[in-house]
């Protein structure tokens, strides 16, 4: 691995445009280290467009953090905080070499191959959009995706700036009309997917606010005593409410320690910061029925321990 100013002679022959597109991460920062870019794969049989000629090195570093670009997006699904970027970057070059268009349905991600087609669902209101990842970022806090202005508007997150989302990678050969994205959802609108090879219109579906709550899960234990020990540790540190969820009907019940409900990205960030101070860095954002404070716990299947 070499510094950018130690580029070997063969790479010096590359055009300035391609080189800059490789190393510039227009959405959030500049990679300070690089490796030889991976060759673009065609993938014609599956409808997958070729990988962008820039923005797909095996790994890169930003602000001292190393990121490994995924070999494939197949099966990728993640939950976390989404942000958006707009006018300050409009017209600037993205990591893939495309010009950023704040009105196109695109996004930036740290490790997904460029381009990748993903569905992003706002877990706060059920709205869903399909975007094409064509940029790198965001390199701020614990954000997992940076959405274009157009995508953020359709998810109804412009005012808040961030929201809790679920990201799911989609195959390129299953593009379907927006009305088919979510059962019972009303089509909001459609628009250009932006980058070359997007393979059809972007999709936006308006959903209803989910009747589930968001929780931060800190661990799952086979022994109830271990879950209780973690619960008491968290409560002693002033964190609440800390609940133990389990399914007594399961053959091998797991006792899941959760904090919540998490009411938004700010709440999520604050909880993670407090947990990090306790040495707890592995958390998972999960959905579950709201705590049965309005229902008898027996009717709720004893989902919250103690019953």
In terms of topology, how is this protein built?
Elements: E1 2-3, H1 9-12, H2 16-23, E2 24-25, E3 29-30, E4 33-34, E5 59-62, E6 65-68, E7 77-85, E8 106-108, E9 116-122, E10 128-135, E11 143-148, H3 149-154, E12 162-170, E13 186-187, E14 203-206, E15 213-221, H4 224-236, E16 242-245, E17 255-259, H5 265-277, E18 284-288, E19 304-305
Parallel strand pairs: 7-11, 8-10
Antiparallel strand pairs: 1-4, 2-3, 5-6, 7-12, 8-11, 9-10, 9-12, 10-14, 13-14, 15-17, 15-18, 16-17, 16-19
Structure explained in plain terms:
- The strands form five sheets. The chain has a six-stranded mixed beta barrel with strand order 7-11-8-10-9-12. A five-stranded antiparallel sheet has the order 18-15-17-16-19, covered by helices on one side.
- The protein folds into two domains: 2-206, Beta Barrel (Barwin-like endoglucanases), CATH 2.40.40.10; 213-305, Sporulation related repeat (Alpha-Beta Plaits).
- Strand 2 (24-25) and strand 3 (29-30) form a beta hairpin.
- It contains five helices and 19 strands.
- The protein is an alpha+beta fold and 307 residues long.
Low-confidence residue ranges: 1-36, 176-201, 293-307
Q: Numbering strands along the chain, what is their spatial order in the largest sheet?
A: 7-11-8-10-9-12
Return the CATH topology of the largest domain.
Barwin-like endoglucanases
Q: Tell me, what is the CATH class of the largest domain?
A: Mainly Beta
Q: What's the CATH superfamily of the largest domain, by name?
A: RlpA-like domain
Distance between the amino and carboxyl termini? 56 Å
How much helix is in the residues? 10-25%
Second CATH tier, the architecture of the largest domain: Beta Barrel
Mean pLDDT: 75
β-strand number: 19
Q: Major sheet, described briefly?
A: 6 strands, mixed, barrel
Q: Count every helix, treating DSSP H or I runs of 4 or more residues as helices.
A: 5
Spatial extent as radius of gyration: 21 Å
Q: Structural class of the helices, strands and pairings?
A: alpha+beta
Helix/strand order, N-terminal first: EHHEEEEEEEEEEHEEEEHEEHEE
Q: Roughly what fraction of the amino acids lie in strands?
A: 25-35%
Sum up the overall morphology in one term: elongated
Q: What is the count of distinct domains?
A: 2
């Amino acid at each position: 691995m070499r510094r950018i100013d130690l580029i070997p002679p063969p790479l010096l022959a590359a055009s300035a445009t391609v080189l800059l597109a490789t190393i510039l991460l227009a959405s959030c920062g500049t990679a300070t280290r690089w490796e030889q870019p991976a060759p673009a794969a065609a993938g014609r049989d599956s409808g997958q467009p070729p990988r962008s000629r820039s923005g797909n090195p095996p790994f890169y570093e930003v602000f001292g953090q190393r990121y490994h670009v995924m070999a494939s997006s197949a099966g990728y699904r993640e939950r976390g905080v989404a942000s958006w970027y707009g006018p300050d970057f409009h017209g600037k070059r993205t990591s893939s070499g495309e010009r950023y268009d704040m009105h196109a349905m695109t996004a930036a991600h740290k490790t997904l191959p460029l381009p990748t087609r993903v569905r992003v669902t706002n877990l706060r209101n059920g709205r869903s959009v399909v975007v094409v990842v064509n940029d790198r970022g965001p390199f701020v806090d614990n954000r997992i995706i940076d959405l274009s202005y157009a995508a953020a508007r359709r998810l109804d997150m412009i005012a808040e700036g961030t929201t809790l989302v679920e990201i799911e990678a989609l195959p390129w050969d299953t593009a379907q009309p927006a009305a088919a994205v979510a059962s019972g959802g009303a089509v909001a609108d459609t628009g250009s997917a932006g980058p070359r090879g997007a393979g059809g219109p972007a999709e936006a579906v308006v959903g209803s606010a989910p009747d589930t709550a968001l929780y931060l899960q800190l661990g799952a234990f086979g022994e109830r005593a271990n879950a209780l020990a973690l619960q008491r540790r968290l409560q002693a540190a002033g964190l609440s409410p800390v609940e133990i969820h389990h399914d007594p009907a399961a053959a091998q019940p797991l006792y899941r320690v959760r904090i919540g409900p998490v009411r938004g990205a700010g709440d999520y960030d604050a909880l993670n910061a407090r947990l990090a101070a306790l040495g707890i860095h592995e958390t998972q954002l999960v959905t579950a029925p709201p705590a049965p404070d309005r229902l008898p716990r027996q009717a709720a299947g004893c989902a919250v321990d103690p019953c």
